[in-house]
Every structure is written in structure tokens, then in C-alpha cells.
Amino acid sequence: MYLRVVRAKVREGCLWQFREYYESRIVPALAKTEGCLFAALLRPAAKSDPSSCDSLTLWESAAHADAYVESGLYDELLDGADPFLTAVTEWKADLSRLQPAQRPTLPDPDVDTYPVEVAREAPADDASQALFLRIVDHRVEPARFEELRKTYEEVVAPALLETPGCLAAYLVEGQRGKSQALSLTLWDDEASAVRYETSGQFDALATLIRPFLSGLYQWRLSLTAAGEERGLRGVDLDVSGFHVVAGRRLRRSGS
Question: How many domains does the chain divide into?
């Protein structure tokens, strides 16, 4: 599997118009695109950047994602979103004094891509749609990445799927290669994700993967400012939450 994230910024007051465009135009187009498994428009749960709005798509393979881009459909859908995106709007304003033939190409949003190492999903339920995405960023000892992957696949992911409200769990290799791993979990709602973290189960699962983290990261996790030993706590991992504004599972892997 392959994960693709398009990072965009939405004009003030245009979020729900963009949501409507995403739901009515982008999702149906992706549903017809071979190899696209999941699509969602995300907003950070933290309100640090109210204009941030990312599109996350999950693909059967990198080849399917590349074919989607090369077909021209990605550019077509992006062009349709122009009226709602801040960067494009500001760019057009800066160029308003130029004749059309003099204007350079509009800038595209940043795109991040990640290979998926482990993918586990709850049984299909058309009535249950993910409304919250949780991402945990781990700094990994590269030589032990495979051990981390195996532990996640055999222990962590099954435990997550047994947690009420968890719909899917993915482990992806980060942009820094095998020195970084991201755990992505999809939830019925934010409350389910919060209950999971505050129950102590997150800390228990994090302890299982602690041996595979980088030495520097383990040192930071295991010592207080006074140098006293302490247990691993969830706040020591980089955890981010995102509300799913629009989108849904389009098909299951292999279907």
C-alpha cells in the first residue's frame, strides 16, 4: 500500500465550500480511479493553523498513485479547487497586473508520500465511517525497523483493532526512511481516540516498541530533568489528531 498526503491551505470562510467540492467532485473521481482505497479531507484537531486542510489518500500501490497523477486527473481536480485555496488565491492576486501570457504556472500544494509497511482494518461496515485520524511519529533505530514492523503487525495492530472505535491501523515508513515510522489509526470519533489514550493502553503498547526507538529518543523518554528513571508516557511521543471533514473508504485492498 501507499499513502499520499496533499497539504493545502484554505481561504478564510471557504472551508465548507471546499468540503462540498471535495465530497461532490474529488471523492467520486477517486472512487472511479483504479487502486484508490481511501480518501479523506483532514483538519488538525489543534487550532494552531486554522487554514490547514490536508487530503489523505491510500493506494493499493505506488504505481496506482503515480498513474493517477500522470493521467492528468490530479491536476484537473486541483484546478477545480483553486477558488478555495489560499496559496493559489494570493498568487493570482500578485499576478493580477500581468497579462495572461506573462503569468507563470500556479504553485501546487506540497505532497508527501509514504510506503505502508503494515495495514490492518476492521471488518467492513458501510454504516461506520472514520471521523478522526490519529498519527504517532516514532524515531526508530534503522537497524531495528524490521523488528518494529513485525511487532506492530503481530501485536500492536491487533490490539488496536480490538479497541472500541478503532477502524484501521497502518504503519508507514517516514520521509526520513527507516529512521522514522508513523502509526496512523482511524477512529469512529475523537472521543474514542481520547479514551484509548487516557486508559493507559497507549502507554502499554508504546512500551512494546520502545526497544526499537533510537538511543537518543529512548534517553529523552526515560529520564526526567533530574535524571530520575521513569516509565514511558504517551505525551513523550509526537501525537497528532485530525478531524475527517469529508471522505470515506472507497474499496478494500485487493477488491
Answer: 2
